[in-house]
Design brief:
Aminopeptidase, eight-stranded mixed beta sheet, 36% strand, globular, 6 helices
Length: 180
Amino acid sequence: MTEAASPAEVTVRALVAAEYEAVLDALGALIVDAVEGGSGVNFLTGVTVAEARAWWEERIPEVRRGTVTAFVALDAERVVGSTLLMRSPNPNSPHRAEIGKVIVLRSHRRRGIAAALMRAAEDRARDEGRWMLVLDTVTGSPADTFYRQLGWNETGTVPDYALLPDGRPWPATFFWKDLR
């Protein structure tokens, strides 16, 4: 487990497998809160904590293998944010990883928590020699603006890539960042 101080008494931690498994309900609640707020994070309006938790549970083998690291932001002991660092397992891309599930509870947004989560994931990737990072997000969303502010570079946009929580098709913008 790695700990780093972040804004307003919130701590960012990289979780080991047992810690990850212990917070699956809280991670599921993060997704439900995000979707209820209109964020496009793989689910549609009406998603339950159990359904969202199942998505996180599917990552357990990867977390145990160390190919995925979950970072959480904790306000006291409450999970208020997350991100994933997903390492490429391919022989031709030991330098690459993907960032996913950058989520902060609506009640905790605009406090620098997402930026602290991104710093923690980028620092871990850099420390491991993974200098090429990629991610995607809903085009035109606050997250789109956020990644640009953090120095991410747009690769391009795919029309109708995914459905928004209300079921409307919407484009996604893909980004990359070179950490060297």
